[in-house]
Automatic annotation (TrEMBL):
Keywords: Membrane, Transmembrane, Transmembrane helix
Lineage of the species this protein comes from: Bacteria, Pseudomonadati, Pseudomonadota, Gammaproteobacteria, Moraxellales
Name of the protein: Membrane protein of uncharacterized function (DUF340)
Pfam families registered for this protein in UniProt: Lys_export
Entry's Gene Ontology molecular function annotations: L-lysine efflux transmembrane transporter activity
Organism: Moraxella lacunata
GO cellular component: plasma membrane
Superkingdom of the organism of origin: Bacteria
Record-annotated membrane-spanning stretches: 16-35, 47-67, 87-109, 121-142, 154-173, 188-212, 219-240, 260-285
């Protein structure tokens, strides 16, 4: 009976997360649409986004490719060289549509109907609560995740190098503090959470940069995991970041075979656990 109750709670939390993500994306889109003089800031947003994506995604890929060369992984791709991967970015397009919907709504919404000032904070607290329930019911304990030596190694390399890329990002732009650079790089693909936390801490512009950076990771992962897996399984897993535990798990399984699943789950669980802690911690210095 307790098991069934816990399972039901987890199921409800996951459903709630799905709906909450759409709401959050619409709200972030609305807040972005309400930014003063946004047209003149679009060039900066594009610059920040492109540099952040290259640094956070590129650094992780390179580091994990080197790691695989130095310490070859026992898992090998089971994908046929001629097989066409089953790639679907429908979910990512839906999320972009939600963001655009919020932006459009903001252009026509009367001032009295604008979201209250603490809307993103409330949504963030609710999101973290549901994430906690979902992780607890995932069936993977912290002990199990940490006992997978290879998964732990990939996680530590991925997190460490990605955070260093955040420091480099901060050094490249005078208006970005080191703490902010670290916060922006800590999303690891968790766009709904990073977008909410960064919007709450740094405003809608930076929230949008963080969201699109992490959403871009998911899209690139869905497209390129099959190809990357042929050259480096660790890099393929790291490419998806936190999404390796959900959205990109089917693609990883298809490209790497069932034998890679324990490694993927270990990496995904650890990064899912670390990401919100790091984001909230670094953003608290804003």
């Amino acid at each position: 009976m307790p098991y069934q109750t816990a399972k039901k709670s987890t199921h409800l939390a996951e459903r709630g997360l799905n709906y909450l993500v759409f709401i959050i994306l619409v709200v972030i889109g609305m807040e972005l649409g309400l930014v003063d003089d946004l047209q003149h800031k679009l060039a900066n947003i594009a610059l920040y986004l492109s540099v952040l994506m290259v640094l956070t995604i590129g650094s992780g890929l390179m580091a994990l490719v080197v790691f695989d060369r130095m310490s070859p992984c026992q898992y090998r791709s089971q994908q046929s060289p001629t097989a066409k991967p089953n790639v679907s970015i429908h979910g990512s397009l839906t999320q972009i549509l939600c963001l655009a919907t919020g932006f459009i709504i903001a252009q026509f919404l009367p001032t009295t109907w604008h979201p209250p000032e603490k809307t993103t904070t409330v949504l963030l607290m609710l999101l973290l609560f549901l994430v906690g329930i979902s992780l607890k019911g995932s069936g993977v304990s912290l002990k199990q995740a940490l006992l997978n030596k290879r998964g732990l190694q990939i996680s530590l390399i991925f997190v460490g190098v990605t955070l260093l890329s955040g420091v480099l990002f901060a050094l490249l732009f005078d208006d970005v503090s080191v703490a902010q650079g670290l916060a922006l790089s800590s999303g690891f693909g968790w766009y709904s959470l990073s977008g909410t936390i960064m919007t709450d801490a740094y405003g809608a512009v930076w929230g949008s940069v963080a969201l699109l950076n992490d959403l871009g990771r998911e899209v690139l992962a869905l497209i390129f995991i099959p190809w990357v897996m042929r050259h480096s399984s660790s890099a393929a897993i790291g490419l998806g970041g936190v999404t390796s535990l959900d959205f990109t798990l089917p693609t990883l399984t298809q490209a790497g075979g069932a034998s890679i699943i324990p490694l993927v789950i270990s990496f995904g669980f650890i990064t899912n656990l670390i990401s919100p802690i790091l984001m909230v911690f670094f953003a608290s210095f804003s």
